[in-house]
Structure formats: C-alpha cells, structure tokens
Amino acid sequence: MFSRSVARSSSTLVRGFASSARSNRKVAVLGAAGGIGQPMSLLLKTDPLVTGLSLYDIRGAPGVAADISHVNTHSEVKGYEKDDIKAALTGAEVVIIPAGVPRKPGMTRDDLFNTNASIVRDLAEACAEYCPKAYIGIISNPVNSTVPIFAEVLKKKGVFDPKRLFGVTTLDVVRASRFLGEIKGADPKDIKVTVVGGHSGATIVPLLSQTAQGKDVSGEAYKALVNRIQFGGDEVVKAKAGTGSATLSMGYAGARFANSLIRALNGESGVVEPTFVKSPLYESEGVAYFATNVELGPEGVKKINPVGELSAEEQELLKACLPDLAKNIKKGVEFATQA
Questions:
Q1: Which entry of 78, 199, 263, 331 is annotated as an active-site residue?
Q2: What's the pLDDT band for 276 if we cut at 50, 70, 90?
Q3: Keyword annotations for this protein (predicted)?
C-alpha cells in the first residue's frame, strides 16, 4: 500500500508544533493510509500551519481522512484514492511521501528498492504534472536512492528545482538525541546531535563530538551508541516481529520536518533541519546528494551547512559512508534514466 524548534514568545505552541505567521498551506500526503501515513496525517491535522490536508493512497485514504477530519482543529481534510491523484495534488504546496512497502525482519533498505523505486517514479511523474512547484519531502525508503529517482523524473519533465526536493532524515537526529539523552540522563529536547551522510546503516554519520553531551562518550559506549543510531530501524523491525517497521516515530519525524518547512516558507528565519538534498559538499567524490543541517527559507533550501570539524572516529565513519552512498545514488539515477 502506498503507504522544535523553540517557539518565539509571540508564537503559539500547539501539540508540539511551533506556529508562525499564518498562511494558507495545503499539504498532500501520498501513502496516507499506510503505517507512517496515518500517524503523520494525524499530527499534521493538529499543526496550526496546515490549513488544507490532502490524503492520497491507492485505497483507504478517504477513510483515514474521514476519521481525522473529526479532530477539532481548523484544517480541512479530504481523502483520495486510486485514480484521483490529480485532485489530491492540485494546489498542493508541500507534498510528503511515505508511500511504499515497509521493511520486514531480515530485509535491508536495498531489498525494498525494486518495489518502492517504481512507486516513487510514478508519484514523481504525477507531481511533475499536477504540482510542479511544490516542495517535496521523500520518506519512502531507500531514501538514498528514491530522492535521486524523484529528481531524475523531474529533470525529464523539465521541472526539477534542487531547492524544493528533500529526503526526510529527521528521524536520525530524533533517535540520536533520544539515545544520547538516555545515556546522559538528560532531556532529549535539550540535546541536538548533527547527523550527516545518508539515511541507512553505515551511511548515517552522527557527529557526537559537536554536541556538548556527546563529546565525552568514548570506547565501547561510543561504538554502541553510533551503532544504535545507525541501525535503530532494525531495532524496531525486530521488536515488531514482522508486523511493521518504524512507522510511529517516522510519522512524528515527517510531521516535524513538514512543520519546519512551512515555518520557513512563511518567512520565519533561522529554521534548520537535517535533510538529504542535492549538495556540492562531496560531489567530487560521486556523492551528488548528502544529508546535513540545512537552513530552510521561502525558496526551500536556503543554505547547506558544512559538516564542520570531525573527530578521528567521525572521519572514519564518513570515509565508510561515502562509497556506499555513492552506490545508492547511482542505483537510483540508473533506475530512473533507464526506465
């Protein structure tokens, strides 16, 4: 199935989402009836910055829309399925895409490629036709490959804008702050860990040395923490025993990214989120897309921040990341260009 920043003193904090200047913002969720799509759609319904919510899936989205439309917030919700994608996307300013099959025990993100690659390609074609100016957030795994697929389709259609296409890697920093907080006995909201690279396994590079609470983590504790951040998704897949993957935490992370993006589109300054975007940072090494902290603005990507100073351990992690990431990106590009 298709499946905080701190609020300013004058802002309102509603269910964890910071609000800024009110503007009409229609958000479309493609894969809204899936494991990620449902909780994310619910959270978006509670976001005061979302005034229109368009939910699409091959089946089930009208039911999800009817259900969350009863939540007493001001936004209007409509559900679409099967052949109604034109209506779902028309007028959408932000599109978040969790569509695709989830991981199961023993599956890698690459195992998802054959199915999810085709889904993402088809959705990219629809977005190119019906909302070519929208800001697109890709959750569908493997993100390291699906973002390049989406980009290549948009290029073919003549509507690619690298500032408007994002791979949602927010869950990596959400996990990192939570896991480090557990070790330190600190509130995760007070911990900000920069995570760079990609969005799977060894391509996920947490920069603990750049965080006050993380710079003194060393030895086996450091190795275990890095491994848990990189493979936290496996922990959830195993715990769910074949019934799903990290859907609830990913739904939260996707909604958080959408909120940050909308705040930036509304003119709020200083909005920074980690995201996998077209980037010059390691392009000379065959890595045309890279996740790092990105300052968002009315145009989408405003500034791609460098990775900064790395510890010796982080340099080794990055060295291991780049070749795998280059292969993932190449796989996505080849799929889209040969299709």
A1: 199
A2: very high
A3: NAD, Oxidoreductase, Tricarboxylic acid cycle
